[in-house]
Write a structure and sequence with these properties.
The chain contains twelve helices and nine strands. By secondary structure, the chain is an alpha/beta fold. Strands 1, 2, 3, 4, 5, 6, 7, 8 and 9 form a nine-stranded mixed beta sheet that branches. Helix 1 links the parallel strand 1 and strand 2. The longest helix has 22 residues. The protein is globular.
Length: 324
């Protein structure tokens, strides 16, 4: 018999989208699942919608709790889950009908600890069918390296994946932080012996104007914290071959956040100094593992010496590239 899959869905102020999400989950071709709706103190019509679905299908379970944030909601779902596998779905997103089927078969057929698929930005339309639908197999170490490839976003986020439950025996999402997957997924990969990647777009990431990680938000500093923690982890656990890529990705992302804070968060001078300190440390920290590309290193040094000039040059380069 196919294994039970626990689908964990945090719910908070998504009254307009929750039914679409739930209908896509209930329409899955894979039927042996439990659906755990975690009402995270939502103050709209979501609690009643959750209870409505629970009354219609015995596979649906509901947790009503005080607001604990996305991490707290996911953690509550993990604690309740009975499945052999776990999947996370954000409550304004939606799934292709074979999302669970494809990811489950990939795990079973390749004897993998987890599986991953492509995702697409959507605005309510059917999820575009992209990819070869072929399955590739990676070691956990290769999955860690995939965080730094051009399509690395597929490998960072929590919700386009299927996990064996034991991967979460000692791991939970950090409370009170956004970019919680940036702080967690790499720790999961460290435990993985083998993972499967399904080259098919099976998850629709719904784009809304109020998406928490879009635009500048002071809590974007959580990304910097997560990135710094990941670099420490990589170094401590012996992933030396990834350090140059990791430090470069961290510096690039941190510089964007630095300018966001500078422009939109008066009084954040201490945080800005902290970001510059981390980038300065990265320039020396990279030495045992290799070097940044020369142009990149010059850019970082210019940023540290005169952020304003660096920014003007960066904007000029972007403008010129856009005209090409």
């Amino acid at each position: 018999m196919d294994a039970l899959i626990s689908v964990i869905i945090p719910v908070y102020r998504v009254e307009a989208y929750l039914r679409r999400c739930m209908d896509s989950v209930l329409a899955q071709t894979y039927r042996n699942m439990e659906i755990i709706l975690v009402d995270d103190g939502s103050d709209d019509g979501c609690p009643a919608i959750c209870d409505e679905y629970a009354g219609q299908d015995e596979r649906v379970k509901v947790i009503h709790q005080k607001n604990a944030g996305l991490s707290g909601a996911r953690n509550a779902g993990i604690e309740m889950a009975q499945g052999r596998y776990l999947a996370f779905v954000d409550s304004d997103d939606y799934l292709a009908s074979d999302f669970l089927e494809q990811l489950y078969r990939a795990c079973v057929d390749t004897d993998s600890d987890m599986s991953v698929c492509r995702w697409e930005y959507v605005k309510g339309e059917a999820i575009p069918e992209k990819g070869s639908r072929e399955t590739k197999v990676f070691t956990g170490r290769q999955m860690m390296a995939n965080l730094y490839i051009p399509d690395g976003a597929y490998f960072v986020v929590a919700w386009n994946k299927l996990y064996k439950r034991e991967l979460f025996e000692t791991i939970r999402y950090p409370l009170g932080r956004i970019h919680e997957d940036e702080a967690t997924t790499y720790r999961i990969y460290h435990q993985v012996k083998q993972a499967a990647y399904v080259d098919a777009s099976l998850y629709g990431y719904f784009v809304t104007p109020s998406s928490i990680t879009r635009g500048f938000n002071p809590k974007r500093l959580d990304w910097v914290k997560a990135g710094a923690e990941r670099i420490d982890f990589l170094e401590e656990q012996g992933y030396g071959e990834l350090m140059v890529s990791a430090l470069q990705a961290f510096a690039d992302g941190s510089i964007d956040i630095y300018f966001g804070m500078k422009d939109e968060l008066p009084g954040s001078e201490e945080e800005q100094r902290w970001i510059r300190k981390l980038i300065r440390q990265g320039l020396s920290r990279v030495k045992p593992y290799g070097r940044f590309p020369l142009r990149t290193e010059i850019g970082y040094r210019m940023f540290l010496g005169c952020p304003g000039i660096y920014r003007k040059l960066l904007e000029r380069v972007k403008s010129e590239n856009g005209k090409q």
